[in-house]
Write a structure and sequence with these properties.
The complex is a heterodimer.
Chain A (H helix, E strand, L loop, with lengths): L7 H8 L11 H4 L16 E7 L5 E7 L1 H4 L4 E6 H4 L6 E3 L5 E3 L5 E2 L5 E7 L2 H10 L1 E6 L6 H4 L16 E2 L2 E2 L5 E8 L1 H9 L3 E12 L8 E7 L4 E6 L4 H12 L6 E4 L15 H13 L3 E4 L2 H7 L2 E13 L5 E13 L26 E10 L5 E3 L7 H19 L3 H8 L8 E2 L5 E2 L4 H12 L1 H12 L6 E11 L11 E2 L2 E2 L2 E7 L5 E5 L8 H13 L6 E5 L16 H28 L6 E4 L2 E4 L2 E7 H8 L12 E6 L8 E11 L5 E11 L6 H20 L31 E4 L17 H18 L13 H10 L5
Parallel strand pairs in A: 1-16, 14-15, 17-20, 18-19, 27-28, 34-35
Antiparallel strand pairs in A: 1-7, 2-6, 2-8, 3-7, 4-5, 9-10, 11-19, 12-17, 13-14, 13-16, 17-18, 21-22, 23-33, 24-25, 26-27, 26-32, 29-30, 30-31, 33-34
Chain B lengths: L2 E8 L2 E8 L4 H8 L18 E4 L2 E4 L11 E4 L12 H8 L9 H14 L5 H7 L11 H21 L1
Parallel strand pairs in B: 1-5
Antiparallel strand pairs in B: 1-2, 3-4, 3-5
Helix pairs in contact in B: 2-5
Classes of the chains: A alpha+beta, B alpha+beta.
Chain lengths: 803, 163
């Protein structure tokens, strides 16, 4: 008996293509303890590396005595900058055009800086040896405050740059000055302010924070002295770029360097950079001819690899009396630490901070960012955001609230009034970005209706008038636009390599497929969602599509996963590679069906002869034929590679609303409600999108309510364990409500914009907006993060709030 | 370092191993027994990625010496499935999208496994408190809480089916 004919709907459902909440392909290994993370890798003869670090934040190294460490049985080597000098590896280039010490060269510039490495039989012996290395320091004056760093008599931090008045991003006017970068039109902005009836200004600090993924950084370097080949497993969000850097640094040809990013236990920007630990493990393996493992501990992770933010911002808005914004000016002092190692596209030392005009139609704008050296660890990574977009969104959203307060306008109303209207897209901002698509008004009304905004405001009014009410109620509202998917190679590169991404798809004779990408998942579920794109494009079930990433020897070159670029850039590469296969498949189908290509229609998983449903060839039929009887003149096989250079960024947006209740007595805050509407364009897997949003909101909650890296005047980082550094548990974490609208990107092959970072970027100012709103009737316009109970309690006392 | 013999029941197998007295349980499991499911996230008992089950209690293996397990029954995530059949908590984490990067997952599963034996019918608040020794940076816990609820129902159904 013939199998029943499936309806098109059934066939489509079987593909589990785009739009399907397909369960994750990755999970089977993770739920059974069979993931393979970097520290799980064990090679025969493998040694362990550990790092001797500086206890002082600024000092000269007077003497290093390796002997006590070398005397410990099982210790193979102790290396310092002096040992790396002959190899010219004691300094390395950073992604930002500066250099960073691999091991401290005569001077240390921050607490916990790498001073020496030890290599031993196991991690316990290595730890003993670290304790045994004796280092003498002469302490120097420490600079922690970036404003003080710019005072004329501030200590000179970077003696290696003495006399250099030109940096990678223009002139340097002070020994601790790195760059001053500007965007927009200063004179137009000045004019707007000169003639404006209303202006507001606000200073705000976006604290230094750390992405703190659950897995720290690490690697296993294995150099084969016979073949001259170097293989390194590494916690890297950008393995291909790392391969290029390693080849440049080590002199090993790129063809003999293989970087493998195995399973990664979260990245959030922490694993973009090339850190001294990686370089030292690689050098050790080359020197000793044995595999060497380095695994960072948590204190090392928070202290040294990749801080984020630390922007001191002055925002100014000019407006009409009825709240129409006329101009924006922003001045930023950016604390970059001891080496400028920000992970930004080369031409943008402040990343894409000039997205700071936000979702608003602002005719004139200017921003200026000044980068400064201090005695802190380098970094400046995009912590679950596109480059400096979190800072930009925070700035503009805070400023719009400040303006609304000054004009006694509702924060929803002022946003309605200033939104870029739907019909204005594509919209060119005063900073020159071309926003691809958006419908902010519809999204805002959807959220206000969903939460019954008017009722919330009425409740707040009632509570404010009740002196016995034990809480202050605050309503936060943020209407943000991101810029992600870096980016067009005409303006975006990393170390000169254009920020395209890539995909290779091979269809096997039996109709299953393998796809390889230049990106690398760190929990986003690429192995699931990428297959869904191919399934929809080619009519092959997701279930039989293998997705591989992270191995530079098998995957095509790509720039990696950060800045929400996977779906906007690699996702586009996938669709384009699939379309190349689709075009060839059509030729084969026409040949098999003995019709012209023009007589064929594509339907879900097959080419049909137009007007005859019975005559068709499925993609599986075509795949077999591609290896068996391709048309004359067509080469056998069915595969394609595509390198996608995006024509523009994508601009996801969202409307977030938060209700907070603050205990007047203790300062403790309770997030009563958080409603997040996201528009990421075409939605590939709604289940995964919701999961990404929950996670991003929780990270945003952590940043806004508790995370910070506090330093004392001696440069001691006073919060580098999980005892001090706030990672919320299930108890503190609010329950999230999610919603969406769909405004596809017109320039992206499948209309997708990217989503995983929006909730982090958008939620942080929402929490601040809510906390400040709770105090707004007292005339408070801004409160700096983090909004810990202690800091809020102090504010309550300052404002004279009585129980 | 002084070595000593440790005997334990590990995932149902009686084992006898020579270990350094200072070896932490998590390193013993991962490096000596090649059971890399338990992960190291903090080494200070905060994150719970290393959680295993010892004699019916959830224990953080990063701050527990291997020698303390002499004579104990130890279960790790690798011992959770029964002959290739996933445990209800494993199924539920998969079905409810209770994991992303997977790094906290073995610890979350082991904590949930023990928690549901102690409290077979928990409220959402009880689940949140029960998991508060395990950090996750990816999921925001919402789907993890759903997964634990779903696992509770699965386990109850299983119990009533066998009763």
């Amino acid at each position: 008996m013939n199998a029943p004919v499936k309806t098109p709907e059934e066939r489509k459902a079987e593909l589990q293509g785009m739009g399907d909440s397909r369960l994750r392909k990755e999970d089977a290994r993770f739920i059974q303890g069979k993931g393979q993370y970097c520290d799980d890798i064990k090679l025969p003869g493998m040694l362990h590396m550990d790092i001797v670090r500086s206890p002082v934040a600024h000092g000269r190294i007077k003497k290093i005595n390796k002997d006590p460490a070398m005397a410990i049985p099982g210790v193979h080597a102790v290396l310092t900058a002096d040992d790396l000098k002959p190899l010219n590896l004691h300094w390395m280039p950073t992604l930002a055009g500066d250099v960073a010490a691999v091991l401290a060269d005569e001077k240390v510039h921050f607490q916990m800086q790498e001073v020496a490495i030890v290599i031993a039989d196991d991690r316990y012996i290595a730890a003993d040896a670290v304790e045994a290395v004796e280092v003498e320091y002469e302490e120097l004056s420490v600079v922690i405050d970036p404003y003080k760093a710019l005072e004329p008599d501030a200590p000179v931090l970077r003696e290696d740059l003495a006399g250099k008045t030109e940096g990678a991003h223009g002139p340097r006017d002070h020994h601790n000055h790195i760059f001053t970068w500007e965007a927009g039109d200063k004179s137009a902005a000045d004019d707007a302010f000169a003639n404006a009836p209303v202006t507001v200004s606000q200073h705000m600090h976006y604290p230094r924070v750390h992405p703190c993924p659950l897995e720290t950084c690490g690697c296993v370097a294995s150099f084969d002295p016979v073949k001259g080949e170097l293989t390194t497993w590494m916690t890297s969000q950008a393995p291909h770029v790392v391969r290029t850097v390693v080849s440049m640094l080590s002199g090993v040809p790129e063809s003999k360097v293989r970087i493998i990013s195995p399973d990664i236990g979260g990245g959030f920007g922490n694993k973009v950079g090339v850190y001294p630990g990686y370089v030292c493990a690689i050098v050790s393996s080359i020197v000793l001819g044995r595999p060497v493992k380095w695994s960072e501990d948590r204190m090392e992770n928070i202290s040294t690899t990749a801080f984020a933010r630390d922007y001191h911002m002055d925002g100014h808005l000019a407006a009409t009396e009825d709240g129409k914004i006329l101009g924006l000016k922003v001045d930023v002092v950016a604390d970059h630490g001891a080496f400028d190692a920000c992970a930004d596209p080369t031409k943008f030392p402040a990343g894409l901070f000039h997205i700071c005009s936000g979702s608003y139609d602002i005719p004139a704008a200017h921003c200026s960012v000044k980068g400064v050296y201090t005695n802190k660890a380098p970094g400046g990574v995009a912590y679950r955001c596109s480059f400096r977009v979190t800072e930009a969104v925070y700035l503009i959203e805070r400023m719009v609230d400040v303006l609304a307060q000054k004009l006694d306008m509702d924060k929803a109303e002022i946003r309605r009034k200033n939104f870029i209207r739907k019909e204005q897209f594509p919209y060119t901002s005063a900073f020159g970005f071309e926003y691809d698509s958006g419908d902010y008004h519809t999204a805002l009304e959807k959220v206000l209706d969903a939460v019954d905004y008017d009722a919330l405001r009425a409740e707040q009014e009632q509570k404010r008038s009740d002196p016995n009410c034990p809480t202050l109620m605050g309503i936060g509202l943020v209407t943000f636009t991101e810029i992600v998917g870096a980016g067009p190679s005409k303006i975006c590169d990393i170390l000169g390599v254009g920020m395209f991404d890539s995909c290779e798809i091979r269809i096997h004779p039996t109709g299953s497929a393998i796809a390889r990408m230049g990106t690398i998942t760190q929990g986003q579920g690429h192995q699931t969602t990428y297959a869904q794109i191919i399934a929809s494009e080619l009519g092959i079930p997701s279930e039989v599509i293998q997705v591989e990433e992270g191995d530079t020897s098998t995957a095509p070159y790509g720039l990696g996963t950060y800045g929400s670029r996977s779906t906007p850039v690699a996702g586009a590469a996938i669709a384009m590679a699939a379309r190349k296969i689709h075009a060839k498949a059509k030729k084969i189908a026409a040949h098999l069906l003995e019709v012209a290509e023009g007589d064929l229609d594509w339907e879900i998983d097959r080419f049909k002869v137009r007007g005859n449903d019975e005559q068709f060839k499925t993609m599986a039929d075509i795949a077999w034929a591609a290896y068996n009887q391709p048309p004359e003149g067509l080469e056998p096989g069915l595969e394609a590679v595509h390198y996608y250079d995006p024509p523009n960024f994508t601009y996801p947006f969202g409307i977030y609303l938060c209700v907070v209740d603050i205990d007047k007595g203790t300062g403790e805050s309770s997030i009563r409600r958080f409603y997040a509407l996201d528009d990421c364009g075409t939605r590939i897997n709604p289940m995964i999108i919701d999961g990404q949003i929950h996670g991003g909101l929780t990270e945003g909650f952590a940043v806004a309510m508790g995370q910070q890296m506090p330093f004392d005047e001696q440069g001691n980082l006073m919060g580098n364990t999980l005892m001090d550094y706030f990672l919320p548990t299930a108890v503190e974490t609010p329950t999230w409500e999610t919603d969406y609208t769909v405004t596809p990107s017109p320039h992206h092959p499948i209309g997708a914009k990217g989503v995983a970072e929006s909730p982090h970027v958008g939620s942080i100012p929402t929490f601040t907006s809510a906390v400040v709103d709770a105090f707004s009737h007292l005339g408070v316009t801004h409160i700096d993060m983090p909004h810990t109970a202690y800091r809020i309690w102090k504010k309550l006392k300052e404002e004279g709030v009585q129980l | 370092m002084a070595k000593q013999i440790v005997k334990m029941n590990l995932n149902g197998q009686e084992i006898e191993q020579l270990v350094d007295s200072r070896t932490l349980l998590v390193h013993f499991l991962r490096e000596q027994m090649n059971l890399t499911g338990a992960h190291i996230g903090c080494e200070t008992s905060h994150c719970g990625a290393c959680t295993v089950d010892i004699d019916g209690e959830s224990v953080k293996a990063c701050t527990h010496l291997a020698v303390q397990c002499d004579g104990c029954e130890v279960k790790t995530v690798e011992g959770l499935a029964d002959g290739g059949i996933l445990h209800a908590v494993q199924e539920a984490f998969y079905e409810e999208h209770g994991l992303q990067c997977g790094y906290c997952t073995p610890g979350m599963l082991m904590t949930s496994y023990r928690f549901l034996q102690n409290n077979p019918n928990p409220t959402e608040d009880e689940i949140r408190v029960g998991l508060s020794g395990n950090l996750c940076r990816c999921t925001g816990y919402q789907n993890i809480v759903k997964a634990v609820k779903s696992a509770a129902v699965k386990l109850q159904q299983k119990e009533s089916a066998t009763a």
